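Protein Entry — a single chain follows
Fields — amino acid sequence, structure tokens
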Amino acid sequence: QCLTEKDEEMREMVIFYITERLLKRFPKILCQHFIECIFHYNCYEDHETYNRFSQSNLEKEVFSLAGREHSHERHIIYHFMLDHMPDDQRFMTTQRLCQDVLGAVVDGRIKLNKSSMPMLEDTLTILRSDEIKLASLKSRPEDTDQPTDQAEQAVMAGMVIKKTIISQVSGV
């Protein structure tokens, strides 16, 4: 939440700590906690798994970024997290957003109501954002070797997916 701090020096110190210390020691931490952040910052507590830690009312109030008035702050955090994930983690995050949020809505595990709508809106906004797109699929104007048609992009996406699956299987 300090990523949205108005004091630039404090914000830069937090960014330094996250990028140079935390991510060096725990490289998957942003991916592992991304979905939890969506539930937490929207104060959605009706899910069986996410946002289940105990907090006092004061802590909930202090750390809440719920509501339209805090939407910009939430997205600053989401975009920072995505910008600091490699492609395989972005791919897994996309899969988990679809499964744990959108799939839960479709299955009825998350009811569409006033408390879940902001979380769903955040999820859909994230899924359509440039930050979640795989770097290998983003077109770069200075790089003329980038694929220009959809077939080449699909082949590249398949290669990234295969690499991710192989790395997950070999890690087991």
Summary: The chain has a mean pLDDT of 83.
